[in-house]
Amino acid sequence: MTTITGTNAITLLGAAHTALRTAVAGIPADGWDLPTPCEHWNVTQVLQHATGDQIGFAAAITGGPWPSEDPFQPSGRIDGDAAALLEQALTASAAAFATVDADAEQVPVPLPQGPLPLWVAAGACALDAAVHAWDIAAATGRPSPLTAPDAEQLLTVAKQIVEPLRAYGAYAPELPMPTDADPTAALLAYLGRRPEWTPQA
């Protein structure tokens, strides 16, 4: 299994944020209502959820404001510039994690597990951003924004946090995948997503 340090996780978080920015930048003007791999949610709702989760991670660390709406019940309506609102959330998330010592073992998170070591906490935040970047890219017919090395690290993080979260509906049951599957496919299947998903399939 891939070894991750606090410093690695912060780098991974930056890559995940970039992936989410890239995916959102690729949403066409008529793409906001497209279906996504997140059942019952369209592109707008996935973006609302992803934005709210980043704000939640920042708030847990800093004590700042929490999302204005429940990320798990996104309205499908965004007031203002969606990319600008996402950028504010990503900036807050990155700034919050930048205040944490690299060897910290008790980092507050908006997860039922409670405080986690930095590598898991920042990795969890990265996992959220990265998988929703993939959701949006898949929904809009764009290439996967995830690299194989990042997917390998994200899978290591996922195996630390995901099982308890399935009970809350945060992730679907794991799907079967060949042992020789590529890292991104393995990650997506573990999170309950079909790597071959398209809006038509």
Automatic annotation (TrEMBL):
InterPro entries: CHP03086 (IPR017520), DinB/YfiT-like (IPR034660), Maleyloyr_isom (IPR017517), MDMPI_metal-binding (IPR024344). One of its GO terms (molecular function) is metal ion binding. Residues 14-137 form the Mycothiol-dependent maleylpyruvate isomerase metal-binding domain. This is Mycothiol-dependent maleylpyruvate isomerase metal-binding domain-containing protein. The lineage of its organism: Bacteria, Bacillati, Actinomycetota, Actinomycetes, Micromonosporales.
